[in-house]
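Human: Respectfully, please carefully check these tokens:
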Amino acid sequence: MRSQSASEASQPSQSSGGRNDEAAGAGQVGSAELAKWKEMMDQGISRYMRAHPDRFHRRVRRGIPPEFRWRVWKAAVRLEKDWPTLDYKCLSETENQWTSSIVIDVPRTFPDVKSFNEEQQQRLKRVLNAYAGCKPNIGYCQGMNYVAGLLLLVSQNEEESFYVFSQLMDHEDFGLVGFYMGKRGIPMWSQLPLLRRYLRACENLVAESLPELREHFIKQNVQPAVCGPNANISSCSMNVSLQKEGYLHDWCSDVTDKERFPACYPNGVPNWHPEQNVIVRLPDPSGCAVATSPEWVISGWSWKYVQLAPSQSFNLSIKDSEQGFLKLIRGTVLDVNQIGVQNDEGHWETFVVTPPNTERSLQLDHRLKSVKAGAEGAVFALMVVPVELFDVPITAMDQAPTTTISGPFSENFKWTRFAKYYPDDFPNTLEFWNLAGILLQDHHGERLNYNQWWTQKQNDNTDGGYHNHTGTPENGTFGELHMVMYSGAPNTGMIVQLPHTLYADTVKAPEEIPANKKFFWNQRDNDAVQFTLPLPPGYVHGPLWSIDPANGKPTHDCNGAIRYPWHGLVTGPINDNGGYSSPGRYTLWVVFEHAPETVNVPTPMLQYVTNAYLQNMVNWPIPACKSGEAADVDETGPLDLQTQRATDSQSTESTALLQLRGNVTSQTFGKCEKYGNCCADIAICSAATPSAPASAPAAAAAKPSGQVYGHPDPSKEYPVYDGFTLTLVEEFNAPLDLDTDPIWTWSDGGLYEGDVRFVKEQITFSDGKMKITAKPNPGIATQKCSHAEVGNVDAKPLVSGEIRARRNMFRYGRYEVRMKAPDVQPGNPDIDGNFIATMFVFRDAKFHHWREIDIEVTGDRKNSVTTNVLSADNTDWWSTRIASARETTCSGNAREEFHTYGFEWLPNKVTWFIDGRVVRTHYGGRPPIPDKSAKIMMNLWIFGPKANFGGKQIHNNRYPMTSEYDWFRFYKWDGESTYPCIGSGSCLTHDDRYLDGNNPCDGQPMEGTWKGKGACKVMILWDVIMCEGLPVILRIAVSILQVLKDSLLSMEFEARQVLDVDWWILVDMVTKRHQWC
């Protein structure tokens, strides 16, 4: 698939030699069907819906023509004509208490939909803001953004989208408010009456329709309709996971609520409002290389926990407008020789983000791409805040960013005056506030860390804020850190009181305190000395220093506990006499509390190295168990494609098809018709015949030459590898006939995120090489429906080629190709741009078994190569949970020279090579080693205007752009007893043949259905939902369980095992595509 750089980390877009193509787009509506819709519209769609509901629903299930969709949707929600009289402009532009949350969620909406650009995001913000202002008893909740965003995509009319959204939310018959709000208008996880009603209905449907499966669930202690991923309302209303009751499986971990915080935590963590704490349990690192927790936004700071298995890495994805902080909780983050910094140009170099300073958390910015764990692994908190918030004065507790709080169980996080818990010590007038906490546990349940948030107003310092964990300075059994998030005064800091007997006799005056600590010192009373360490945002007070028992002076102690007894945080400033000055702003800080024996922080915490130390450790994009938020990307498209895009958008597919039908031979059409290959407009298969090759095509290699299939060169002596047998060779000395060759054919696909459509004409053979060329479409006709994608492919500005094996008949062995990547600009191999030139094996994403192993040469640098392995079942959308990508390099210039790329695929490992040098080995785990047979593929494609993969400098691209393949070789592993069976196909099972079409003329029947439908039978799910109501989701849920029944019945659910099944489908469809094929 793809390797994520820092700016791309956690992007939902993906590559794969490129196989995560999207089957989006409305089905083609024939002229007769279109006439029926026009007749309905002319009669008045509302009237027709009432008069002929069954007929109307049958037509909806075949898809609403795009030109009528918005009118039909408005009628379906009973808002076709009369609009309410509201001042939409005023409502949309007036800020309210939900505006800050809306601002955070809007950029996260449809991150992979090109048309949902910044202008659309601003429209979405205004629509949601207007609704929250209009309905203050409901407000805004996560998940509403996707519904409103979908309406904007379809309507392109902001104000109409607002009224339709309001109707969807509020209508007494079909309103969605019950999915998002509690009975009293409060967004409480424990309420959500409509959601609970739907879940009960789903339970009843499962019991009625699938009693055998229900009994299995009961035995395994699994609830079929437990609300699942993300713990937010959008997922609850749209996406359900099968999981153990009481756990929220958003990543590899468990998050539980309503679990009382243990009072026995070491040395007495205060046990206040225990019902509000959230417990996050980490997964077992042996089965999860990288785990990221759900994300919270706490007073404007995004906050999540990350666990890395030994030597694993994590992409940070920090924007240039943000400041990040990393606080290590367990393990190590590696030091010199083991971590580097990658700059904006992609080069690794010495780059000190901030001077080494052990008095702060590791400070991060957009230039630091990733961090890597040591041999023990690592657990850390990752905090990111917009830099602009540092300048926002907090002068009241009811203002942003203090009130900007979201995430799982965020309703628990309410600022509460501390006087509520300790009224005797803290008067109600004291501006001293507290939030609920998060307890972090490892997979055994051992407590690692407890975070709690506090705020205090300047001049409200009080002795009541001082506390003691250790009893005496010598007894350091508890580790605690206070980190400032917002500083209300210049000299906000940690104040410490020490007994005279330990401290005062050795430190007589402030000038004797080490200069680098800049302590403010004052005599507090006759029994103790107090000093203060100023803490700017991001700084902590420990465990960084302790008292040296030999001399009583403070010393740095990076691996020890806080050894001072009484301490607190003051919101100063402190004047020369040790007193406090006038009132001012609030200071907000977070407390980390952990047992010191679980923490090992190297000194210095992190150092930076040059290229010389990196060798093969470039970027380290490890798959997280949950993908993070999308990073900002450059949306500037290639300038020389704008005219082509405009031309494409004006052309009509039906016209092109009408022109082609006269050229169809009866023989070709008969073959396509015989097999029922998915497209009715199959005439395209013989159109636009490419020009005759310079030499006659090579004879089809139906029989082996000796023991080698394909077209080997008899004069060559091929390398021998121990344990492998040479089985297939293509020298490309003569053209291949990709319509008749028994092994190879061409693809008619096109990646959803890419800018190219694959056509046969772009694969050519000359000079003893195969050449694949990407260029603006010169007029080659393509149909919307694609066999390779088993779905629709939207119009693309470019055409390119993909050669592929006809069948899934290759598995364990050694795969090698000698290739040269294209010049971004012809004749200039040093210019960087965007392309992905590939050799890979791939099996049926979107259907049963997605298996993939990639070699991808990309355009971001002249020697950039990505390796990738992917394995998933019943999954049609890429995520970091199913893939593992790494960037590496070849020597020299991949565009100027031929290099040999390859991989050995064995049952227990995959090893990649470049020019005979091992560059990576994957031993399984997450993802596991692919175990199913696959097709061999080679292609060239261009990402798209956002250039999320393949190189950011897409504006440099000039066409044509050609990659060259000198030869391809496949050596079968001697331990492989099943595949390949070239020629006979005897080894292929029904599963191997499942929906394995390549193009309309490959002569292969399309065996199987996709989600219960024949290949390319289009259903617009949202049309059905809008016109039939949400109960249709329950039927869809049960139908998917029916399809998966056999697999589920054979599965035993362990305590922390979860099978994610999108049986509400809505979230998957809304967030990734707004039409469903």
